[in-house]
């Protein structure tokens, strides 16, 4: 047994003691980027915007969000950043939203691209590059096969990574408003299988040493095929790498991403049930790939699979745009390129598709305002 890893019994007791998790990945639509969201210069104004979206989320029936607090802001504004994290958690809690907190991430661009990209700075943030998923031309989703880069590949940086982890877990590890720690988003993405594994294992170790009340997880995500002709995209849904299997081995709760059609979602879920632990999908909804709310959400509700789809309000992040690599490949596939990829509301809070919103409300795990 790994250090303090939860038993199957404890994992199921935790999972069955709470309502079905119906959440989403939160990126405030009216905030330009993660720095503007968290930096001391603009946090108060950004939190007001976020609170309006939390209110919308609560009225839609959501009870959880998944977020990525930025290491960059912690590194340069540690004290105020931790204060703002507490305020953010308090705000989410007022609207009945528990938090899943992501610590590190393997969606990274190659070093040659990172070196050419504008460096993050504090103060007024630039407008996005319009027409690009994520609001930037500097994207890990352009189909390149180079290795993604970040400074955490150098073990000399690990002490500050550990300090970041211990600050967050020390602040929130006993807070019931936080429901899960997501140790590593998409481990091994951007050809980082061997590079990320040593630090991922260390982060699990650091968090477990602090004995938080929440379960730990890192997701399996690589359920794609390849891009050959004939196309096999998402046709080989259990081709996961060694680092993903290690992530599952270290996790208390099984989490996964799947942007494929409903048949693929069902297949992957059935495979993951073999690990005999609760299952939560922490990224889904890709209308372009026919990964639709009307099919996937009822399946998760019926199977009691936790759900965090991507996005609430569309805005500066432009998550309605397809991943960049899809534009050239779309002629080979039956993709719905005219549909939004992610998000469920326009920037004025009107629904992208009212039927989708009605379904969320109908399946909501808690009563909404005005309901009997």
Q: How would you describe this structure in keywords?
A:
single chain, 372 residues, alpha/beta, TIM Barrel, eight-stranded parallel sheet, globular
- At the first level of CATH, the class is Alpha Beta
Strand order of the largest sheet: 5-4-3-2-1-8-7-6
* CATH superfamily (homologous) name: Glycosidases
Order of helices and strands: HEHHEHHEHHEHEHEHEHEHH
Give the low-pLDDT segments: 226-231
Structure report:
The structure is a single chain. The protein has 372 residues and is of the alpha/beta class. It has a single domain (8-363), classed as TIM Barrel (Alpha-Beta Barrel), CATH 3.20.20. Helices cover 37% and strands 11% of the residues. It is built from 13 helices and 8 strands. It has helices at residues 8-16, 34-38, 43-60, 71-76, 78-94, 111-116, 158-172, 193-209, 242-250, 262-272, 293-303, 325-329, 354-363, and strands at residues 22-25, 64-67, 98-105, 178-185, 216-217, 254-257, 279-283, 306-310. The protein has an 8-stranded parallel beta sheet. Helix 8 packs parallel to helix 9 (242-250). The longest helix has 18 residues, at 43-60. It is globular and about 45 Å long. The termini are far apart. Mean pLDDT is 93; it is low at 226-231.
Short summary of the structure?
The chain is α/β, with parallel strands linked by helices. 37% of the residues lie in helices and 11% in strands.
């Amino acid at each position: 047994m790994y250090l303090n890893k939860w038993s199957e019994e404890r994992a199921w007791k935790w999972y069955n003691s709470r309502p079905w998790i119906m959440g989403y990945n939160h990126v405030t639509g009216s905030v330009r980027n993660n720095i503007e969201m968290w930096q001391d210069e603009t946090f108060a104004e950004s939190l007001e915007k976020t609170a309006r979206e939390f209110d919308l989320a609560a009225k839609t029936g959501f009870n959880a969000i998944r977020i990525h607090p930025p290491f960059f802001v912690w590194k340069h504004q540690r004290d105020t950043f931790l204060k703002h994290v507490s305020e953010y958690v308090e705000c989410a809690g007022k609207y009945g939203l528990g938090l899943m907190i992501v610590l590190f991430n393997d969606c990274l661009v190659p070093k040659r691209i990172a070196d050419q990209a504008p460096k993050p700075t504090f103060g007024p943030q630039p407008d996005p590059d319009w027409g690009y998923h994520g609001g930037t031309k500097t994207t890990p989703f352009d189909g390149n096969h180079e290795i993604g880069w970040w400074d955490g590949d150098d073990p000399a940086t690990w002490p500050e990574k550990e300090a970041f982890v211990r600050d967050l877990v020390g602040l929130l590890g006993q807070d019931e408003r936080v429901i899960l720690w997501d140790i590593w988003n998409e481990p091994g993405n951007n050809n980082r299988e061997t590079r990320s594994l040593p630090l991922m294992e260390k982060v699990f170790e650091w968090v477990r040493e602090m004995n938080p009340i929440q379960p730990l997880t890192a997701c399996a995500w690589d359920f794609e095929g390849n891009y050959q002709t004939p196309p096999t995209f998402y046709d080989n849904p259990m081709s996961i790498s060694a680092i993903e299997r290690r992530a599952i081995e270290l996790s208390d709760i099984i989490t996964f991403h799947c942007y494929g059609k409903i048949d693929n979602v069902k297949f992957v879920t059935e495979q993951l049930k073999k690990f005999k632990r609760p299952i939560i999908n922490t990224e889904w909804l890709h209308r372009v790939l026919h990964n639709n709310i009307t099919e996937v959400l009822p399946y998760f509700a019926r199977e009691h699979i936790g759900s965090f789809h991507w996005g609430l309000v569309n805005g500066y992040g432009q998550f309605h745009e397809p991943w960049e690599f899809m534009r050239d490949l779309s002629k080979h596939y039956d993709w719905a390129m005219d549909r939004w990829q992610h998000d469920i509301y326009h920037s004025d809070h009107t629904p992208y598709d009212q039927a989708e919103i009605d379904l969320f409300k109908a399946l909501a795990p808690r009563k909404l305002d005005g309901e009997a």
